[in-house]
Write a structure and sequence with these properties.
Largest sheet: 4 strands, antiparallel
Shape: globular
Radius of gyration: 17 Å
Helix content: 25-40%
Strand content: 15-25%
Number of strands: 8
Number of helices: 6
Distance between the termini: 31 Å
Length: about 160
């Protein structure tokens, strides 16, 4: 959820798309299938939700860690999709504008009606080269903020070749 904040705060940022000419913040909320709140996090109003979604999962206030995660489009990124798989969770983002999204595949195969969607190719040689880093991140969920791992893996990052 996004809110305009009328007073100065370290979490507020300007974002014309969401707040007009004002400053605001984002509140990420995790609920279970019965609608009970399990955790939340306040983040600046301009970052992608996906960078902080996994932090909310691991720093929840109670309840078991979920097996299936359903989010809106704002919490989707390819990096988070991969991290969720490594963590053993099913990730089911509700993607808006599906024709504009890109799916990933390992093999060249006939995907039938999904062929246009599955146009990204996973480089298994790169995964193999960086497997030690991937495994270290997977086992370090209590030591690192997942949003920093996700941002290090982003396309604009120069801190890792992965």
């Amino acid at each position: 959820m996004r809110f305009v904040v009328p007073v100065p705060s370290i979490y507020t940022r300007p974002n014309r798309k969401f707040f007009g000419g004002k400053r605001g913040l984002t509140w990420l909320n995790m609920i279970n299938d019965q609608g009970a709140g399990l955790g939340a996090k306040v983040v600046t109003g301009t970052v992608r939700d996906s960078l902080h979604m996994i932090d909310v999962l691991f720093r929840r206030d109670g309840g078991q860690r979920p097996d299936i995660i359903v989010t809106d489009t704002g919490s989707y990124s390819d990096v988070v999709f991969g991290l969720m798989h490594l963590l053993g969770m099913q990730y089911r983002p509700a993607l808006a504008d599906l024709p504009d999204q890109k799916g990933w595949r390992i093999q060249d195969a006939d995907y039938g009606p999904l062929a246009r969607f599955a146009r990204g190719k996973i480089d298994l040689a790169k995964v193999k080269r960086h497997w030690d880093d991937i495994w270290a991140w997977r086992t370090s969920s209590g030591r690192w903020a997942w949003c920093s791992i996700a941002s290090r893996c982003g396309t604009a990052s120069t801190s890792t070749r992965l």
